[in-house]
Amino acid sequence: xxxxxxxxxxxxxxxxxxxxxxxxxxxxxxxxxxxxxxxxxxxxxxxxxxxxxxxxxxxxxxxxxxxxxxxxxxxxxxxxxxxxxxxxxxxxxxxxxxxxxxxxxxxxxxxxxxxxxxxxxxxxxxxxxxxxxxxxxxxxxxxxxxxxxxxxxxxxxxxxxxxxxxxxxxxxxxxxxxxxxxxxxxxxxxxxxxxxxxxxxxxxxxxxxxxxxxxxxxxxxxxxxxxxxxxxxxxxxxxxxxxxxxxxxxxxxxxxxxxxxxxxxxxxxxxxxxxxxxxxxxxxxxxxxxxxxxxxxxxxxxxxxx
Length: 306
Ligand SMILES: [Zn+2]
Hints:
The protein is mostly helical. Helices cover about 60% and strands about 0% of the residues.
């Protein structure tokens, strides 16, 4: 690589992450302002996935991770199943009038409606992140919840496609920890839509396998660099960086981890066995110990991700 090309490459390394977030937010914000937030989000979400797919092939962080890990079907099934179920729950809450009071328009919550939209979105991120942070941290420390969260961590590589690989119970737990905080604060619907979109885009990016650098952004946002450490099998690295979008609560509660001297963790995944199929993964947390015992006894010799 010659001089100018190397300079351009370095600029791209640092510019790509903020550029991707901004580019995704432009159509989203136009849609929300026009009252078509859901449509704008869905169009951006799938276009964003396509862009990440191409970038992963053009400039992969880890060439090895471009290989098929045999988990595309379960990854997709978890994503679709969880997203559909979450939409149903939100619709049902709306039906019973529980979420209709969300929104400062009702004037019930302490939400600062007079703030500029960007400041309200930052506030929503900080408030919801407090719940998401603890939902995630508890999932790593309390074993019954870890058995659900382990489905997400069981992959051996990270790429945009396994972003949504969450056991349904794991996702519901995160919603229970964060949703009521926004609801109690009286967060307006537009702000909640921004929050949901930002969480989806940053989530895609945290898992993506694209060569990027982050500098000081690592101390503000959950970047792919920080999240790769979170997926380490070494718990000194893996039990860190619990933030979903922001690193604020990790810094405050001392769980921030970054090793700039190393490229990434040695091994990504979990130290337990995990079945390879979607339905077995859904059932797995309910028969965790039995499955691990059978694996250790050599009764399961294939069909596991270990
Ligand atoms: Zn985790």
